[in-house]
Amino acid sequence: MNSTNREPAPAIPRSIRTPLGIVAVITATITAILAVRYANADAGSALDARLSVIVDAPEPALYVVASSVRLIGDPLEAVLIAAALAAVCFRLRRVRLSVLAIVGPGLTGVLTTTIKPLVGRTINGSFSFPSGHTAAATALTLVAMLLAADLLRAGRGTGVMLTLGGAFLAGMAMGTAQVIVDAHYPTDTIGGFC
To answer: What is the pTM of this model?
Structure first.
């Protein structure tokens, strides 16, 4: 068969669609529960206090690192990363994944921006739930890991572990940075990750 007649590769490899779908339902449920729990709050909870102790950054160098990590989730930087990721996917002939690289993080940004005033939770006078920075880092990494799983022709187990593991590490790094710089409560970042 001529390679130009082949159907484009799927954005999400078939072998990992069901497990990722299940995880998506679970994480959406967690976000909804947290949104209801912290609606209109203007202070951290007891859980936030316990989690903040874990990531407390007494070292000025950690604050500098956290401030740098945080930049990845800023809107302009996230758009530039998404565009670069889309270009790589397109160049590798992963057209559907290229579209997902733009649409996924873009919808994530719109969703977190829309949800924040609806939930009404604030920190330092700004809406905070869910963390858009954490959501952006997670969404961008999910696309990158989907590409890696596809290129490696990873089976179900490896593909799921690679995709979710990468997303977890990115979400954890960004969420920790957000808490260190006092931009979010830990539960905001959990909501953003989910």
So the answer is: 0.88
Query: For the chain, how many helices (H) and strands (E)?
Result: 8, 2
Please count the other Cβ atoms lying within 10 Å of the Cβ belonging to residue 54: 9
Scanning the structure block, which residue is given the tokens 């565009």? Answer: 83
Distance CA 84, CA 108 (A): 17
Sign of CA dihedral 168, 174, 178, 179: positive
The H or E element that residue 122 is part of is strand 122-123
Tokens 């006078």 found at: 125
Residue with tokens 């990494």: 141
CB neighbourhood size of 171 (10 A): 23
- Alpha carbons 138 and 108: distance in angstroms, whole number: 10
CB atoms within 10 A of CB 97: 26
Over the chain (194 residues), the average pLDDT of each successive run of 10 is 61 83 94 95 90 74 83 90 96 93 95 95 93 95 93 86 93 92 92 94
